[in-house]
Specification:
23 strands, about 15% strand, alpha+beta, seven-stranded antiparallel beta sheet, globular
Length: about 625
């Protein structure tokens, strides 16, 4: 989390709140002046401060990722230049922790110059070969992925590079060479290994997957087979060569900025890099080939949203799990959450039960709207939320995933509930080592706001190709085989992705971004960030540091789609008695170190232009 400009403090989303001092110049009989000479009157409410600024601010999953974006801002670039640079750099800085260059990202942004307020999908689709018949002919009843030798069957078109180039072309001001320069520098010269990264190398099955498709990343990320020590250098020469190939393609295109961006994109999707990706996929009997890459185009669309406490809360449509948050917010409007107290047993129960209802609808109705009819207006209807809210029992948790509703009855369009897949309950769930994601948010001094949530290509689930320097997305695993279902696999269709982010508006103008990585926990964690900010008036740092919870009472989006009815994960830090109170309501409580990690809330005060951002101490976020 890095800023430019002087520090100005304000509390909550828009209001100033001064600290209280007990008495006039004294506290508990002690002279305030003396206390302040020796230390402070009290400890800060958070482990890290809110960062305030006026000229620009950025927060991400790692300080070097943030620095890549800040270098663009400090050299005259805008928020879009910074976000593109940081998103590419994260593939160098956070490959173990988060995502690969061969993967995907979702973007949300507001451009003050054009007034555009848009969602950008960098979620690549399934291969043009992907059909239920293709996978069934190979003996599979769902799309498999790693760990294991079937990982290449779930290869998914890398979307993040195309989306970054498109954003840079339409809204940025820098050349592609400049935004790629930091990534090239980090990969060629090396970055220091850090604890979050080495901890992920030591768990989660990366080594076994590397050995299954040798050499994988063993010679890059390990020190002669051992986990490297934090502070040693990680050099990624092949990844640097991939970035440099795109930069050199831009050099050859001439001096025009747009020509350079186009050349870099073509290099990745129809040129040398595309050929290398296709050859690598073919070598491991993967599903991806040149035609999949050549046909890919990132997609812009209007965000979908709802209102809460006078604010707009906007996110991506049903090609993601994003609307879970807005559906839950609509349901929660029918409860007096404030009277329950923050993170009390009653509060956690009510929010969890609302989420379970929304997750049930996710499983029944969400899918790529380019391929399926989805009653988005019905799902986000306040009247539909009132009907669903009646299903929440204040005293007892629903014993599993509730039944889905019928949002078609509240839609202006005609449709019916499709056939539904079935998922057996039980199965493994490693809450501490789920494949990672990262989140980046930027606001510049002009008021441009942009964020991305990149993910995919996890080392334990995919194949790492050392000649490319990255792994390929396996996100197609989220599609199903149920004919007629909105999320059934089809050639060129986007899987219903877990990666999401949100923007909050006041009087129609975007003023804040919300994002939190964490697989299926993302919508749930982001809901808690929104509530912490809008309902409880927390500042951005308080909002992300507050303990979180996450329901596992819905089939997991990732293969093998583990379903743990009524299981509720909780971090440390809840008030005494909350866990017992939830158990008495029927929740099966399990401990989790994190329920979403790498969260950020960033706010621009439209009244004075002051910027504020937070960074999640659950990982190396800054």
């Amino acid at each position: 989390m890095i800023s430019t400009g002087k520090e100005i403090q304000f509390k909550g989303i828009l209001s100033v709140k001064e600290s209280d001092m007990a008495g006039e110049g004294t506290t508990q009989g002690r002279d305030v002046g003396f206390i302040l000479e020796q230390g402070d009157i009290s400890r800060p409410p958070t482990g890290r401060p809110v960062i305030y600024a006026t000229n620009g601010i950025i927060s991400s999953g790692h300080y070097l990722t943030s620095m890549a974006g800040m270098r663009m801002l400090m050299s005259g670039g805008n928020a879009f230049d910074a976000l593109v640079s940081a998103t590419f750099a994260a593939a160098v800085v956070e490959p173990v922790a988060s995502y690969s260059l061969g993967a995907e990202a979702t973007f949300m942004f507001h451009d003050v110059g054009t007034g555009d307020f848009l969602s950008l999908s960098g979620q690549g689709p399934a291969s043009l070969k992907a059909t239920p018949e293709f996978f069934k002919s190979r003996g599979h009843d769902s799309i498999p992925t790693g760990p294991g030798e079937d990982a290449p069957l779930s290869f998914t078109v890398p979307g993040v590079a195309a989306a970054c180039f498109s954003m840079l072309e339409k809204y940025g001001s820098k050349s592609v060479q400049e935004v790629l320069s930091v990534s090239i520098e980090y990969a060629e010269k090396g970055i220091p290994n850090y604890e979050y990264m080495t901890g992920r190398l030591d768990a989660g099955g990366a080594v076994s997957q590397f050995e299954l498709f040798p050499p994988g990343g063993l010679e890059i990320f390990f020190n002669e087979g051992d986990i490297p020590d934090p502070g040693t250098l990680l050099v990624q020469k092949s990844l640097a060569r991939t970035f440099r190939t795109m930069s050199e393609a831009a050099d050859k295109a001439g001096s025009e900025r747009l020509d350079g961006i186009s050349a870099a994109k073509d290099c990745f999707y129809s040129g040398d890099i595309a050929s290398a990706i296709s050859d690598a996929s073919r070598r491991v009997d993967g599903i991806l080939d040149e035609s999949d890459l050549e046909n890919y185009v990132p997609k812009y669309s209007e965000p979908i949203g709802t209102t809460y406490m006078g604010y707009g809360v906007h996110g991506h449509s049903t090609w993601t799990q994003g609307p879970v948050l807005q559906q839950a917010l609509n349901i929660l409007e029918f409860f007096d959450l404030k009277s329950m107290g923050h993170n009390s047993a009653e509060y956690v129960h009510t929010v969890t039960e609302a989420l379970k209802l929304a997750l049930a609808d996710r499983e029944a109705f969400y899918g790529d709207p380019d391929f399926a009819s989805v009653p988005v207006d019905g799902l986000l209807s306040k009247e539909y939320a009132a009907e669903r809210a009646k299903e929440i029992d204040d005293l007892r948790a629903h014993p599993g995933m509730p039944g889905h509703g019928n949002p078609w009855a509240y839609s202006e369009f005609q449709g019916e509930v499709s056939p539904q897949p079935s998922y057996p309950s039980g199965g493994p769930m490693d809450l501490q080592h789920e494949s990672g994601t990262t989140h980046i948010t930027v606001i510049d001094g002009h008021g441009n706001i942009a964020c991305s949530t990149p993910s995919g290509g996890a080392f334990n689930k995919s194949v790492f190709f050392p000649e490319l320097g990255f792994a390929i997305s396996t996100r197609s695993e989220m599609l199903n085989f149920t004919e007629g279902h909105p999320n059934v696999v089809k050639p060129g269709k986007r899987p219903r992705t877990t990666i999401i982010n949100y923007m909050i508006t006041r009087d129609g103008s975007p003023i804040a971004t919300i994002g939190c990585p964490g697989g299926d926990a993302q919508a749930q964690a982001n809901l808690q960030l929104v509530l912490n900010t809008l309902l409880w008036g927390m500042n951005p740092q308080e909002a992300v540091e507050a303990p979180r919870f996450s329901s596992l009472s819905a089939p997991n989006s990732f293969y093998p789609h583990t379903y743990l009815p009524n299981q509720l994960s909780m971090e440390d830090g809840f008030p005494e008695g909350v866990s017992d109170g939830l158990s008495k309501k029927g929740h099966n409580i399990v401990h989790a170190s994190t329920c979403g990690m790498g969260a950020a809330v960033a706010i621009r005060n439209p009244d004075n232009g002051v910027l504020a951002a937070s960074a999640d101490p659950r990982r190396a976020s800054y």
